[in-house]
Amino acid sequence: MTDASVPENVAPPPAEVEDVELYHAHSWLTKYVFCQDAKVIAIQYAGTAISVGILALVLSWVIRLQLAFPGAIPFIDANVYYQSMTMHGMIMVVYMLTAIFLGGFGNYLIPLMIGARDMVFPYVNMLSYWVYLLATLVLVASYFFPGGPTGAGWTLYPPQSILTGTPGFEWGIVMMLVSLILFIVGFTMGGLNYVVTVLQGRTRGMTLMRMPLTVWGIFAAAVMALLAFPGLFVACVMLLLDRTLGTSFFMPSIVEFGERKDYVGGSPILFQHLFWFFGHPEVYIVALPAFGIVSDLISVHARKNIFGYKMMVWAIVAIGVLSMVVWGHHMYVSGMDPWFGFFFAVTTLAIAVPTALKVYNWVLTLWHADIHFTTPMLFALGFLVTFVNGGITGLYLGNVIVDVPLSATLFVVAHFHMVMGIAPVLVIFGAIYHWYPKITGRMMDERLGKIHFWITFLGAYAIFFPMHYLGVMGVPRRFYELGETAFVPNSATALNIFITVTALVVGFAQTIFFYNLFKSLKYGAPSGPNPWRAASLEWQTPETPPGHGNWGKHLPVVYRWAYAYSVPGAPEDYLPQNAPPLKGEHSP
Amino acid sequence: MSVMGLFFVFIASIALIWLVRQGVTQSPWLEEGEVAQYRGARGVAPPPAAKVGLAVFLAVAGCLFSLLMAAFFMRSDAPDWRMPPPPAILWLNTALLAASSLALQMALNGARRADMARVRSGLTIAAVAAGLFLIGQLWAWRELLAEGFFAASNVANAFFFLLTGAHALHLIGGLVALARTIDKVRIAPRLTEALTTSVELCAIYWHFLLFVWLLLFAALIGWADGLGAICRRALS
């Protein structure tokens, strides 16, 4: 460490920003509503996502009530059941998980973690949120149109999705497609921002390999989303044309209620290709930010540097690349060429390698660590367990020969809820408990947090673990009513009732979380700038919550990676990324 | 889907080369202190954020058009596929779009030599030619419709409208940006670096759209049938 000054021929990002370059809010409206500050946009995104998420949670109760007590609730008929199923799936996957991870955590954390003052295109960022809000409003509005929302299933497969007989044929399907198109337009604006900010906005000294894994996860997910969402976009536009103009992109010649439709020669399989070309990367668009956040939670709360940082980054990139070539495993039952099935099975199983590598690294980070069982840590550990569980059933289903008999059963429902439902939601909770002090300046209640964790974690297991058994028994998914099905034993009904009751209890128990969230806003203990003694940059802001422009007059300068914990000889057991180098410093 | 395969190999190789050059093979725990001490000092200023943003957007738009082409080839396999006769005006339109792209390149060259007159004329010619291209495309649509090639009557017609329409919408978006650039150039007393960047972004986008149009055009007039056959053989 001889000379810490920057050589003249390097062009570092400016350490100071002219005041005019920053966005300034001039009125209440531009400060809290039409705001271009990424931190406000993040909270708007997260708030909207959580609100529709609650709607989707209630819809899951409708599904569960029907499955456990068929016909007992008068307003749940077949139409309502299918509409609830469709909306639950679509909202949770697209409007909740994607939006909260990229729009919520991405907007809040990227600028703070890389030492930027804001996103590089703040205006486009604001526009992205408002288009997203419009998309959710269009989606929810389909409840108030004749026929209600579409009941085509979240995959919207033609031909059934646009034929009469499917609930929401009149308006629901059109509004769903329009809403998705809007969502993708809005998301593309946001996604461009996240990617370009990571590429361009890093402060002096923040090399790619010094970024926290949270930023890596969100960055990789944003790149994937930008390349995958066009698939859904094309599928939606073409399906919309089939529905409104009568083109035959996807619609084959078909007779409906004895009447021959004008469609001819269309290919439903083409829709499936386009849909899953988006649909599979979507799983990792949700999972990669979760992976990144969990890495940071574990490292901070175990006071240890993340094991194998370099491997973790490479694994993120490898998962991102591989996930673009596995979409066919969602179509094993579509009658594809066996060689195709073989190809997709191989790529699918290959993803297990970088994923398992990440799991081992998390476990090895915990090995001999100074583990603090704080609420965020509990949620991170809960994620590890559910993710491994859901991942392993994924290996079963990745094999064509196992998938074909299990494909239409509750086994698949159990698998994908474990791996991309429960696991990411646990991360979202953990992340909220972790970053709440930075966002509000107050701590959330630990005791309530732990109660919330145990109910959610054990409850989610009680809901989804038995579903594996139901699936192996052959209980079909998507069915409104089992009726007199010879191969389904009576014990299945008992299990179904148990799952439903648990789902209701766990769902209601989330009020503990919301109570904690709002109560702590006013009555939480003041947290100070860095309650978890974390090394990454977002905890080193001069103000908490971070003020306008994040960093005061001078941008931080970064001297090391984000995982300098338990450093020998350091004044505390960690070294912030922006602390000047110690004499003879060497990380563990 | 082989179209997508090619596209992804292209994007992935760019991304991987970039990642390696950015030092993803370095071990961050061994690299403490100022970056410049262990990273070879490079005197290149980073590109403006807008340019990087455009590059990322072109990747997204490229993905969109690749998917449309993939769908085009997969669907063209069906026995009901009847390609409409391409309207002759498409040739004129192609020339107009090429002229537009060329004019923007002239404007960019002018901007680099601080030749304000050349920038102004280049931008104006480009805008007019692009506008004429759009009118020409509308004319081609009208011609097809007049001859009874409706979107609903055969899917090949629908693909014609979908591909040209998607391309035209991208060009309209570009025209908005171009109009703003023209306006900025009009009131500016002299060229600034920001103005040169604006002109450059327009030029890059126009070249991209010309490239996409040439591919679409080849597919629409049937020159890409051979490629389609190869794709289908690779698929089945």
TrEMBL record, chain A:
Task: Tell me the compartments it is located in.
Answer: Membrane
**Protein origin, superkingdom:** Bacteria
Enumerate the Gene3D superfamilies for this protein. Cytochrome c oxidase-like, subunit I domain
Spell out the InterPro entries in the cross-references.
Cyt_c_oxase-like_su1_dom, Cyt_c_oxase-like_su1_sf, Cyt_C_Oxase_1, Cyt_c_Oxase_su1_BS
Membrane topology field = Multi-pass membrane protein
| CDD domains, alphabetized | Heme_Cu_Oxidase_I (cd00919)
> Membrane-spanning residues where?
49-69, 89-110, 122-145, 171-192, 213-241, 283-300, 312-333, 339-357, 378-398, 410-433, 453-475, 495-518
Entry annotated with the keyword Metal-binding: yes
What sections of the sequence does the record tag as coiled-coil? none
Keywords annotated in UniProt = Electron transport, Heme, Iron, Membrane, Metal-binding, Respiratory chain, Transmembrane, Transmembrane helix, Transport
Domain Cytochrome oxidase subunit I profile stretches? 22-559
Q: Which PANTHER family match?
A: CYTOCHROME C OXIDASE SUBUNIT 1
The similarity annotation says: Belongs to the heme-copper respiratory oxidase family.
This chain belongs to the protein called: Cbb3-type cytochrome c oxidase subunit I
Task: State the organism of origin.
Answer: Methylocystis borbori
From TrEMBL, chain B:
Q: Known SUPFAM superfamilies for this protein?
A: Cytochrome c oxidase subunit III-like
Membrane topology annotation: Multi-pass membrane protein
Q: Name one Pfam family in it.
A: COX3
What are the transmembrane regions? 6-24, 52-73, 88-108, 120-139, 159-182, 203-224
Q: Which superkingdom is the protein from?
A: Bacteria
Cross-referenced Gene3D superfamilies = Cytochrome c oxidase, subunit III, four-helix bundle
Q: What is this protein called?
A: Cytochrome c oxidase subunit 3
Q: Which family does it belong to?
A: Belongs to the cytochrome c oxidase subunit 3 family.
Q: Give the UniProt keywords, A-Z.
A: Membrane, Transmembrane, Transmembrane helix
Residues annotated as domain Heme-copper oxidase subunit III family profile: 1-225
Natural source organism: Methylocystis borbori
- Which InterPro entries does its entry note? Cyt_c/ubiquinol_Oxase_su3 (IPR024791), Cyt_c_oxidase-like_su3 (IPR000298), Cyt_c_oxidase_su3-like_sf (IPR035973), Cyt_c_oxidase_su3_a-hlx (IPR013833)
Q: Where in the cell is it found?
A: Cell membrane; Membrane
